Amino acid sequence: MSETHKVVFYPVGNGDTSQIVVDNGRRVLFDFCHRDKAEDDDTPEIDLKKRLRGELKDAKRDNFDVVAFTHADKDHIQGSTDFFWLEHAEKYQDKDRIKITELWVPAAMVVESASNDEQSAEFVILRQEARHRLLAGKGIRVFSKPQDLKDWLEPALKARGEKPDARDHLIVDAGTLVPGFSLDADKVEFFCHSPFIKHCDGGDVVRNSAALVFNVRLKSGKELFDYLEVGDAEWADLEDIVTATREHKNDDRLKWDLFNIPHHCSYKALSDEKGDKETVPKPLIKELLLEGRAGAYIVSCSKPVNDDKSAYEQVQPPHIQARKAYESHLAKVDGRKFLVTMSEPKASQPKPLEFEFTSSGLSLKKSVVVGSAAIITSTAPRAG
Length: 384
Prior knowledge:
Elements lengths: L4 E5 L8 E4 L5 E4 L17 H11 L4 E6 L5 H4 L2 H4 L15 E8 H5 L10 H15 L3 E4 L3 H13 L11 E2 L15 E7 L2 H4 L12 E8 L2 E8 L4 H13 L8 E5 L22 H7 L2 E9 L19 H13 L4 E4 L12 E6 L2 E10 L2 E6 L6
Parallel strand pairs: 3-4, 4-5, 5-6, 6-7, 10-11, 11-12, 12-13
Antiparallel strand pairs: 1-2, 1-14, 2-3, 8-9, 9-10, 14-15, 15-16
């Protein structure tokens, strides 16, 4: 019997939250963006806290195996410090909070500075949690080990009477597999594309460049699938990833059946020029887009990407010019569809996008709104 894995994207506006549910029950949550207004019934954004609590209750659990924050921008962490059980302080340990077995963060989230006025900000609270877990030596993976991290960590370890490399087993470098998951045991593995050390060192950290980027490989029966999970990387960051991946002969890690595109369909993930009608991707970005397999899907975690006169003049993402570029390249690889989280099945009532990976292929379980109810249907799978 083949395994069934799921990847779910939640409609949270211009923000990111997605979840991988592995056939063996392990759950990996990427980012958390709960909009307060979503708790009102008349808003299209999903009540993320209510939804995730319900899913965990149905699964008879009170935790995620992994919660990965790709970076510390508000639209990737909003509401998280009210939702999760945090180990570093009792005030974040109410009995109904959701626990995190292992926290994944880029090194930038550990070393990022904060002003006195920012000490109660969510990114600072999460920084405190990451530092607490790293010093405790459990329940965390930190991605990249720049000098700034060494400068903070090594004196802290020395004060505890420990060696400078005592936490190296918790640090993951770009170009390697994340420990704790394997294709043999879990039918999933996580290959870290980014961040590179240069993204996290020296002066002010650019969060988008220092964000987590993964190739997630899923196995069902004899079929392998690749999911490209990207934070808010810009085109130059993605070019670095393509170049480094090829230099180290890991070209297969650029393939994708499912692509969570960066930064809410911003043209800046493709090029430094938006273009009048359609963004022209930089050469290496074009090559990455053409690594998609037949039957692949692209997902934009964003507001609806409209195609009208005003959309072409829009400053903030999503950008219609970027959408057209993604769609034209998806067509070149015989891909299946470009989907927007806040538009499916319709903009007034978006529902989570749920993909299934089985030995028969990749399929989308699509919600169809009929009246006030959502009916789940399934598109025919395409083989991997």
